[in-house]
């Protein structure tokens, strides 16, 4: 494959990342685009009062860590921290600000605290084992779970057990749903499903419904951009020219998919560390469910890191072949398609 791209390139297939439990926990923070998310920076849509209501409810929940204070002298009765639920669940459509509010809550909470997707937490438990994961998270003031998955009974039961154990030790919980883009007209709200699946935890959660329009609607209605070799060379050269330290990975799509199968998903964040752009040559549709779900987990990390993707071959929004888009993991694939489209709009 001839190319005039400068030689400051790497291949993801040459990387074999490793992560300790402490390193896994260290990356459980809000995605880059929510580094500065706060309650003040959340902009409720005036046409949907539930967004303003949600803002105030989450802000109030954030005061649950307030230290006790005394109303008078040393021997006077201490004031208790505000009473309320030990968990909060933000239930709404795609693109109404749930993750922003979850990140704002995380920033407002004292440490130790963790923020990750449902997939990230289950990957950590899978990599470390349940007992080690409980030990790792015990003592946390807040566990924030973005995009709580409801389509895998085994993972849901395991996550419920983990949260039950942590909640019993005093950890507060916050979660959002994994509803798909509402431009496709399905499943905007998942509160009933969520409360049913978490069973013993349901009475500890305050469910907050958030209505509104999907501001990322255009992503799912568009298409992933496809380039030829010359177009990729030009685009990547432009990335490299922006900063002398820029790092670009370039891999054959099939080879990368095979390589992802050798790495635990909890380590995908380390796989793309330091990468400023990703090039995928010869994209082809995926036919195996295992490869497809692994690619979804990889794209979640790429999207969170806001890394642009330059691709040739089949459009990335058509990568999930056959009946995948109508099967049990439809929601995951819809989310991935939206993120793949957004990641190619450079």
Automatic annotation (TrEMBL):
GO terms for cellular component: cytoplasm
Record GO terms (molecular function): ATP binding; ATP hydrolysis activity
One GO process term, biological-process aspect: cell division
InterPro entries noted in UniProt: ATPase_AFG1-like (IPR005654), P-loop_NTPase (IPR027417)
Keyword annotations from UniProtKB, A to Z: ATP-binding, Cell cycle, Cell division, Nucleotide-binding
Protein's name in the database: Cell division protein ZapE
């Amino acid at each position: 494959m001839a190319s005039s791209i400068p030689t400051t390139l790497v291949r993801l297939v040459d990387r074999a990342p490793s992560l300790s439990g402490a390193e896994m926990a260290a990356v459980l923070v809000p995605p880059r685009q929510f580094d500065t998310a706060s309650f003040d920076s959340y902009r409720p849509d005036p046409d949907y009062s539930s967004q303003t209501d949600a803002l105030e409810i989450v802000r109030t929940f954030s005061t649950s860590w307030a230290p006790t204070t005394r109303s008078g002298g040393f021997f006077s009765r201490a004031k208790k921290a505000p009473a309320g639920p030990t968990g909060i669940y933000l239930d709404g459509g795609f693109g109404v600000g749930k993750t922003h509010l979850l990140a704002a809550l995380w920033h407002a909470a004292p440490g130790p605290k963790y923020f990750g997707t449902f997939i990230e937490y289950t990957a950590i438990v899978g990599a470390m084992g349940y007992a080690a994961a409980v030990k790792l998270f015990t003592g946390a003031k807040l566990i924030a779970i973005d995009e709580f998955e409801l389509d895998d009974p085994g993972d849901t039961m395991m996550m419920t057990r983990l949260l039950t154990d942590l909640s019993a030790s005093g950890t507060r919980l916050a979660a959002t749903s994994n509803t798909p883009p509402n431009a496709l007209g399905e499943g905007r709200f998942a509160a009933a499903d969520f409360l049913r699946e978490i069973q013993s935890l349901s009475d500890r959660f305050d469910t907050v419904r958030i209505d509104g329009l999907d501001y990322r609607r255009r992503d799912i209605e568009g298409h992933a951009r496809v380039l030829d070799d010359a177009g990729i060379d030009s685009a990547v050269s432009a990335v490299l020219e922006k900063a002398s330290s820029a790092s670009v990975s370039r891999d054959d799509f099939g080879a990368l998919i095979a390589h992802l199968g050798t790495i635990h998903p909890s380590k995908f964040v380390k796989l793309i560390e330091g990468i400023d752009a990703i090039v995928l040559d010869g994209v082809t549709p995926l036919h195996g469910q295992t490869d497809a779900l692994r690619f979804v987990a990889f794209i979640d990390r790429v999207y969170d890191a806001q890394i642009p993707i330059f691709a040739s071959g089949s459009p990335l929004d058509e990568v999930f072949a056959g009946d995948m888009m109508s099967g049990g993991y439809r929601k995951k694939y819809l989310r991935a398609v939206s993120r793949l489209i957004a990641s190619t709009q450079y």
